[in-house]
Amino acid sequence: MSKFKTPLRYPGGKQRLTPFIIEILEANKIKGHYVEPYAGGAGVAINLLLSNNVEHIHLNDSDFGIYAFWYCVLNKTEELCRLISSASMTVEEWRIRKAVVQKCDKRKILELGFSVFYLNRCNRSGVLAAGVIGGYDQTGNYKMDARFSKDDLIRRIESIVRYKDKISITNFDAEYYIENYIPNLPKDTLVYLDPPYYEKGSELYLNAYNKSDHARLAKTIQREIKHKWVLSYDGVEDIVKLYQRRRHFLYDLQYSVAKVYKGKEVFVFSDKLKLPSKCSLIHIEEGMKSLVNA
Ligand SMILES: C[S@@+](CC[C@H](N)C(=O)[O-])C[C@H]1O[C@@H](n2cnc3c(N)ncnc32)[C@H](O)[C@@H]1O
After folding, report:
1. What per-residue confidence (pLDDT) applies to 2?
2. For strand 189-193 and strand 33-36, is the pairing parallel, antiparallel, or unpaired?
3. Ligand 1: centre distance to CA 197 (Å)
């Protein structure tokens, strides 16, 4: 179990990969910057920063709602925590939050950031497009506040904001970010990319890629990123093919959205990246089942 927790739940949240990413940082003597162009809940990044494994994290997400949440964590901390603390846990309130997220009014960033957070914590599997935990009549075994432990969530936010000066957040499309933001970072940087899944992506995220987007992204990553990078995806053949010239391996990891998505994941590595001598993905709960082309 990770020591520091992101306040956001995420389908396919990668927090449990933290020990493996630490091994990669150590093998490559990277202590400075850590970048996530597809940050989402940024579970790994938050863990790395709060355990002082890196000096600065750069979080980017093209979803304005997700950006709004991180913006409020860092810049409107008190107001956000007050809203969380006084949040009413009713289906009526849920409907209001949902309407705010759907409207996505960028001028009302606090209301939006809070509403994204509210749905993230009250929806099934944290999926923004999903329904409320317990159903609209709240007759399910779990009720909508099952994942909304106010004190704990506020504590998580407060521990992150202490590191405010070491966190950069942006709201770009990942490819723009790769081409225009990452090149300005120092050499002492690791980039970890966790794009929307190839299969099932559209069920989990509001902004999914289609086949040709994944193919274009593969070219952009392999052509443009000069820093050391790691990529994780669902391990389908089409994806493995797009990165076949890079070192990669498949592993099994079960997620909380197990019914929606379950199975092999693939890790791909940039050519210059040193792999840890003892590649111990065994740290990860389900362990590594197969090692291919490592
Ligand atoms: C697989 S999730 C990342 C999960 C994250 N690693 C975690 O542990 O929480 C993918 C994220 O990428 C974002 N995203 C989707 N398309 C994007 C794009 N073109 N550029 C940047 N971010 C994008 C989504 O909003 C989503 O938050």
Report:
1. 56
2. parallel
3. 9
